[in-house]
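Illustration 12: YheO domain protein.
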Amino acid sequence: MHFTVTNLEEVFPLAEFLSDAFGPMAEIAVHDLDRPHASIVFIRNGHLSGRKKGDSMTKETLELTRKARDSGIDFISDYRGHDLNDHQFRVSSFFIRNKEDEVIGALCININITELQRAAHLLQTISETDSVNGMVTSGIPSQELEENPEENIRRVTREVIKQVHIPIDKLSRIERLAIIKDLKDRGIFLIKGAVGVVAPELKVSVPTLYRYLQSLK
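Figure caption equivalent — predicted structure in token form:
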């Protein structure tokens, strides 16, 4: 028994609920298949993909809806979506049918996994061990990783600064911004309190560092 509606607006309360349940890292969209070039009739957290109401669906979603029409499937979950707005997404799509059992729309949950990937990269970076003596590459015992998160943030920050080969007080704004971007890409700023640790290492104030981070968005 398929999920059927008279019109797509009946799905909007469910989409609102999913948006609240999944939070700010998930984009929730409802697509109208009768107008594929302006299919989005409902969207929340559209800033993640850069899309808005009236924009089109991705080629992947369009292709999946065609398969749903042919095969009769109700949903497809957890597939890699199209990269949008410098974000990568894991997508689940639920297909909506009318009373005649025709696919007329899709409810899509697009979870932004970019920050998760950065966090995973950071964890790998700070937890790599020497296969011989079980010490992390920086010389800090692995059991201290959880005990001294601030020290690990300093270590990674100093390593990135060292790669520039320029004294910290001689850095230009562009060079300083490049260091901050490198740290952001490594997931450093996903750690609570990281800004307060990194700022002194870069010899800038905390508000200044926040302004640098804002300029990278």
